[in-house]
UniProtKB/TrEMBL annotation:
Residues 229-311 form the Molybdopterin oxidoreductase domain. GO terms for cellular component: membrane. It comes from the Archaea. GO terms for molecular function: iron-sulfur cluster binding; metal ion binding; oxidoreductase activity. This is Molybdopterin oxidoreductase domain-containing protein. InterPro entries: Asp_de-COase-like_dom_sf, Mopterin_OxRdtase, Prok_molybdopt-oxidoreductase.
Amino acid sequence: MNKIVCPGCNLGCGLYMNDVLYFRKNAPVNSGKLCKFGMKLHKYEKALPMIGGKEEELSNVISAASKKLAETKDFAFVSFGNVTCEEQLAFTKLASTVGSDVYTCIPGFVGADIEKIRQSTEIITFIDPYTTYPLILRHMLYAKENGAKITSYYWKKIRIADESVILNPTEIDKIKSIDFGDSLVILDLNPLNLEFSNEIINSCNRENIVCLKPFLNSTGASLLSGGEKSIYQILDEIKEKKIKGLYLLESDPRIVPDDALLSALDKLDVLIVQQSAHNSLSDRANIVLPNDRTFEGKGTVLNFEGRALETEGKTEGIKIISEILKSAGKEETSYDSLHAEVLSKLGITEIDEYVVPEHNLVYKPETELKKYEGGSHLIYVYTPFLWNNTIDRDFVEISPGLAESLNLHKDGLLKMTSSKGSAAVKYKIVEDVPDNVVLSPMKLPISTDVITPIEFK
Ligand code: SF4
């Protein structure tokens, strides 16, 4: 039975797995508890080695990848952090052979640990803990029972909060005037809301921020790979032909809310994907290399606290990257040497999941908050299911007031129009949502951004 870390987000919940999942009660972050995603750990069809859409011997695909890397100029490498630190490091070595960086699309940041939530007396939160990071809710409840005051800034009312400030997309600037004082701040740093998170990170005491992230090893990836470009910048540069080759390691650009942006991928000279799942991204790629499933890789991952966690399993992904290095005439690498280098970079000699190593990640980004127009908005809300392309809901949330004003009937559909066209979707009436907002856990074809101005017609 392998000791593994749930791949659903950067909380790093521990569990045991063989054919079924078992609770690991001594796991430091979750004490055996798991959210809905962790309890399911979705299954999917495995990606096979392919060239031009046809299955091939792995050795041929490795040679083809190596050849393309050598002959294509301006290659970009992207790994969001869905692999172990050891595999990320191997990927970084591969990128450096063609003079490139690995982009994680989330800046490196390590903030406060989970214990700090429990000890806080004032908490300011920017997440919906009920759907986004449910296990954080347990720690917030503990703090609240011990007298902490919780203030929420979000698109809807958050039940656990003593005070809920509902954010209005046209007045996001108002977050600039929040007085953070010594409050503990709970924030989500993800590739789609960087401007929003940057504004908050740059406005408060960084030691007081619990900074949650969506991918299993987001923190480790940014510690080991220095490239800082957003997923939007990368797609823009592909469109402008500044990037001609793209190598994606367990990273799916289909997370962007506007599918139209993905047409940039058709402009690439070559798209290589190395991933565990067979899906429409691997169908689109020129070269497909298989990888260990995210929760089956052996190695180290760093959770949002910077805590190093061990996950047991296979090292097939590393072996493939090492073979590409060898095929390119470069020095091969191995799990053992990568693991030793990871420990050295962390300044530790062994993994102890109960001790958080010291981190000195420098947070650099400066961005401008986006401005949104319009009276009503469709807002894309994040859950582990969204990041893993396994949406578990097929409805949006709207207020009773909106349902009444649109005269919606039970089993009817909500009709919305944006600059991209119209959509009709199932809805659920929820008391906590304001009348001018539709919250969607699904990517809808009318989305133009995380926040899309809409009309109801
Ligand atoms: S998705 Fe995140 S919160 Fe849920 S079980 Fe996995 S690691 Fe824990």
